[in-house]
Amino acid sequence: xxxxxxxxxxxxxxxxxxxxxxxxxxxxxxxxxxxxxxxxxxxxxxxxxxxxxxxxxxxxxxxxxxxxxxxxxxxxxxxxxxxxxxxxxxxxxxxxxxxxxxxxxxxxxxxxxxxxxxxxxxxxxxxxxxxxxxxxxxxxxxxxxxxxxxxxxxxxxxxxxxxxxxxxxxxxxxxxxxxxxxxxxxxxxxxxxxxxxxxxxxxxxxxxxxxxxxxxxxxxxxxxxxxxxxxxxxxxxxxxxxxxxxxxxxxxxxxxxxxxxxxxxx
Length: 266
Hints:
- This protein is an alpha/beta fold.
- It has a single domain (about 10-255), classed as Rossmann fold.
- Helix content is about 40%, strand content about 15%.
- The chain is built from eight helices and seven strands.
- Strands 3-2-1-4-5-6-7 form a seven-stranded parallel beta sheet, sandwiched between helices.
- Helix 5 (about 165-180) links the parallel strand 5 and strand 6 (about 185-195).
- Helix 1 packs across helix 8, helix 3 packs parallel to helix 4 (about 110-135) and helix 4 packs parallel to helix 5 (about 165-180).
- The mean pLDDT is about 95.
């Protein structure tokens, strides 16, 4: 029982790991003794985040820059990782984008970019990492895939981010479909649907344009818990799903939102 939530010695890949929720999960994994690869599009940002994470949490964090919204980028990433690891214990599909525009003017590029990154990219990364995940998974300790969805895929979002909610609803259902397919291979697939966290992405959505001086207190007051999420909140769910404690949880989408969905009135 002492090791119920242990992920010590496991190897993880977190996409979109250079900031926001991805960086929080990577930090939680490192603090728990896992070896973590982080990926993001911008090389400098990815390298800097890996350094920052190791400085803050210790452990080994390896930067693997790449664009997981494109098949070429996915193949390159998988090839690099396969050259360094013969198995992967945990995959966190966190890379995600939004696109804000009024419905009447919503552009095709905003539709495609969101769907390609959030849904298509997640699927093909899982597909191409199957050999490494299968090499890790056993009946006692399955390999874990954690897809980061959103409460916007469960309830109607308040922002003009038309393709984002549907893309996350697709992530949640893709999670169930893949969970059913891969459970026989000792790979569990689950999703986490975060509510408001103090991230660059949310700051753009609430109209602050990615600024760091966001009035998070204002965002917090709209949440039933009267706060935004923290590293411990999101990393806690991810660690549960990656440990012995989560080994029998399959195909679930778990909200991590301070009660936002439970309290939503329609």
